[in-house]
Amino acid sequence: MDEDVLTTLKILIIGESGVGKSSLLLRFTDDTFDPELAATIGVDFKVKTISVDGNKAKLAIWDTAGQERFRTLTPSYYRGAQGVILVYDVTRRDTFVKLDNWLNELETYCTRNDIVNMLVGNKIDKENREVDRNEGLKFARKHSMLFIEASAKTCDGVQCAFEELVEKIIQTPGLWESETQNKGVKLSHREEGHGAGACSGYCSVL
Amino acid sequence: MATGDRRSPRLPQVTEPAAQGEPHVPTGRELTEANRFAYAALCGISLSQLFPEPEQSSFCTEFVASLVKWLELSEAVLPTMTAFASGLGGEGADMFAQTLSKDPVLKGDPSLITQDLLSFFLRDGCYDARARVLVCHLSSLLQVPLQELELLEDTFLESLKDTGEEESETAEASRKKKENRRKWKRYLLIGLATVGGGTVIGVTGGLAAPLVAAGAATIIGSAGAAALGSAAGIAIMTSLFGAAGAGLTGYKMKKRVGAIEEFTFLPLTEGRQLHITIAITGWLASGKYRTFSAPWAALAHSREQYCLAWEAKYLMELGNALETILSGLANVVAQEALKYTVLSGIVAALTWPASLLSVANVIDNPWGVCLHRSAEVGKHLAHILLSRQQGRRPVTLIGFSLGARVIYFCLQEMAQEKDCQGIVEDVVLLGAPVEGEARHWEPFRKVVSGRIVNGYCRGDWLLSFVYRTSSVQLRVAGLQPVQLQDRRMENVDLTSMVSGHLDYAKQMDDILKAVGVRTRPGWGEKGLLLAPGSLPSAAATSASRTSHQDGKSQGPEAGDTPSDPSQAPAPEGLHQSDRDSLPAAASPCICSHGVESNPLGCPDCTQETQGPCPGLH
User: Fold this and answer.
1) Using CB atoms, which residue from A41, A60, A62 is nearest to B33?
2) What is the residue extent of each domain of chain B?
3) B426: which DSSP letter?
4) Which residues, other chains included, contact A60 with Cβ-Cβ below 8 Å and sequence gap of 6+?
5) Within a domain: residue A194?
6) May I ask the CATH architecture of the domain B263-515?
7) Mean pLDDT across the stretch B235-262?
8) Is residue B133 pLDDT above 60, yes or no?
9) How far apart are alpha carbons B384 and B377 in whole angstroms?
10) What is the DSSP string of B142-186?
11) Choosing among A13, A58, A76, A82, which should be mutated to test the B contact, i.e. which has the most B CBs within 10 A?
């Protein structure tokens, strides 16, 4: 089973308190939704294997606590992450405004610069929307992030968010190739260049 | 028993009000929630780095679960902690350490964490060797000096011991102390069970020495008090130090076990500590080294040290034979030549000089007898350790020559038992006449929690000579590094300080320093391999060290092996000049073996000067 897995990716979920980070993760990994989910302490951790374009990737997802009192711990998690999911609540403008702070932190603590970021506007099932989809899209473009709107409650866009992120990471071989080295498989530099466009093409090499 | 009334006058220094009055919460619980999380996470990550073996995983998960409870963290963090303990998310360990040491409760004193962890471990009276390794590792991450940890251990011990001594005085009045040791312990156990924990807090609270005031208060405070006060305190005491109270010194071999004729523990030092050291001598000689304890004069690894007296008759025979061989080969050139023959690895049965082979019968018999007996003794030692005669506290084993062989067989025997983990902290094998193939050492990873040190000497011709018939391939641990890929394994090349097998006893002081075992004059030299910068500087300069901390980070072992013979002459030559200059500088009456000057001259030194060559004993 494990031999099929192309790579293990470290994904980080960050964002203000109460935007639904844990709910998104819970929906993605267990396909459940709990409206009364307690605040995360420190960090939560889940593993899920997904298959994107016929490639299996094992995701180690670190769901950070949004609460201010755990903010001191967040820098510990950035190291070695290949993908970051930045979440805001479309019904709370303040969570959108604070995205800049999160991006700053991301830049400060991330060890690599080719990390794939994704912006997720959560809770689109709610009526009282305060942040327009276009605003989110604009922000994401400005900071070259992937963007999607989702709802952990209705399951809208959740799967898609993770899949797209993983797809993008796999298309950036420099990001995860170091992981494969541990398993004794190493792609030569030339092969990587060819494979970058068509991911299934070089995955068969493995 | 009105314990409280009796004790209060005896402890006038009960001045620390915080220690007495309201119950104290362990420091760990006073931290912010984020830092308690970081604390637990840091422990989990450290555990996974220190004990990645699958057989240790249950220890790791149990530990993490009870630590979460101890810190009163929400159950919700358990899966994450288990993930940390299984080796995930280790990247952020230093960040956790940083944030943790900045907690306002600590007031810039990270040793409070060490202390909290210590009281967490000791709460049920079992000081697991793995626990000590973890505490050491965490202390180094938080940059707490090791002395501080020892101090904390002592404080803890004191707070327990005081309860005991008080009682022993009353018992002494009527009967002899030694006889009653066991009795009053039991008496106490029953007696104290009826007294509330509060009394004991009142007593031990006075032990809050200025330096560790907060520490002691916490140790005996609140939850600590619930655990340590009253009967539990004594239970812990007995558990930690051996149920019989007498511990190792009280151990008497009930019957002749197998082929073993002599087996006793001799105390090397007075004192008690939460970890003990057992030193094992490899042979006995005439003169200074005729006793088992003689080579260990400088050893100060723990304040409670024993040396194992075993088969003196045979070891004496062996020592004499070794000396005969040396004096028989009076020719300095021959010895020198032999050393280089061994060093360059061209030794074969045929190359041994005829003069040596002619005296071979002198050595072969006692050597063979001792080889066999050391294995038996090792197995016996294993069962003593497994039955916890020493109490539930970590043991460090140090031995040279056949003493190292005793350790080897002790570990081998222990590895076959189920509950062998967490007893032995470190082992130091010096010039060990045992198999040096890594696969034979593999099972030791299960037994030893801390370091496995193999001190070897490439030019030890005597060892390779006595081993010439036993093992053709000459894969002897005492002659070369053991290529075990584990963070525990540390190979220390002692070639520069040991020129012959007999040097292991004579140069023990320097050797111990080189392998990172604390010796009498210096303190705080022992460090964990994982802790950066904690290695003794002496080792770095005087011996070339090949440590296999991590299979991945280290290059393939092929890099080490072939370079050995080629490197050999270089450090040797360098050292030779060192040695030549050293005795010249020192005054003649101070020998290199002992600190005290002996007007008659140290017997071994005199022998040296008469013998082959001053630089070459």
Assistant:
1) A41
2) 27-144, 263-515
3) E
4) A8, A9, A10, A11, A45, A47, B88, B89
5) no
6) 3-Layer(aba) Sandwich (3.40)
7) 58
8) yes
9) 11
10) TT--HHHHHHHHHHHHHHHHHHHHHHHHHHHHHS-HHHHHHHHHH
11) A76
Nearest to B34 among A45, A72, A182 (CB): A72
What's the average model confidence in pLDDT over B141-167? 73
Residues 17-46 on A with a CB inside 8 Å of B are 38, 40-46
Residue A206 lies in a domain: no
Hey, what are B282's tokens?
């490899």
Report chain B's C-alpha Rg in angstroms: 26
Q: Which residues on chain B are in Cβ contact (under 8 Å) with A182?
A: 552
Per-residue model confidence (pLDDT) at position B339: 67
Determine, yes or no, domain membership for A12.
Answer: yes
Q: Which domain holds residue A112?
A: 7-171
Decide if pLDDT at B300 tops 50.
yes
- Could you give the CA distance from residue B263 to residue B251 in angstroms, rounded to a whole number? 9
- Does residue B201 belong to the interface with chain A, where contact is any CB pair within 8 Å? no
Has this prediction a pTM greater than 0.80? no
Contacts B38 to A, Cβ<8 Å: 42, 72-73, 76
The interface predicted TM-score (ipTM) is 0.80
B397 and B422 in contact (C-beta within 8 Å)?
no
- Is residue B424 very low, low, confident or very high in pLDDT (cuts 50, 70, 90)? very high
Contact A41 B83 (CB under 8 A): no
Q: A160 in contact with B at a CB cutoff of 8 Å?
A: no
User: Which residues are B435's β-sheet partners?
Assistant: B476
Numbers of helices and strands, H then E, in chain B: 29, 8
Which residues, in sequence order, are CB contacts of B426 under 8 Å at separation 6+? B396, B397, B448, B450, B451, B452, B453
B212 has pLDDT over 80: no
Chain A residues with CB inside 8 Å of B83's CB?
45
Q: Hey, of A61, A64, A67, A72, which one would you mutate to test binding to chain B, going by the most B CBs within 10 A of its CB? A: A72
Is the per-residue pLDDT at A100 higher than 70? Answer: yes
The pLDDT value recorded for residue B121 is 84
pLDDT band at B251 (very low <50, low <70, confident <90, very high): low
Tell which wins on pLDDT, B251 or A30: A30
Contact A73 B80 (CB under 8 A): no
**Rounded mean pLDDT, B110-135:** 85
Total domains in chain A come to 1
Q: What is the 3-state secondary structure (H, E, C) of B296-330?
A: HCCECCCCEEEEEEECHHHHHHHHHHHHHHHHHCC
**Over the range A53-81, which residues count as b (16 or more CB within 10 Å of their CB) and which as e?**
eebbbbbbbbbbbbbeebebbbbbbbbbb
Q: Chain A: nearest CA to B43, how far in angstroms?
A: 14
Residues A131, A37: Cα–Cα separation, whole Å: 24
Query: Which domain CATH number covers A75?
Result: 3.40.50.300
Mark yes or no for CB contact A38/B37 under 8 Å.
Answer: no
Cross-chain Cβ contact A45/B80 below 8 Å: yes
pLDDT above 50 (res B201): no
In a domain, A205, yes or no: no
Predicted pLDDT at B362: 74
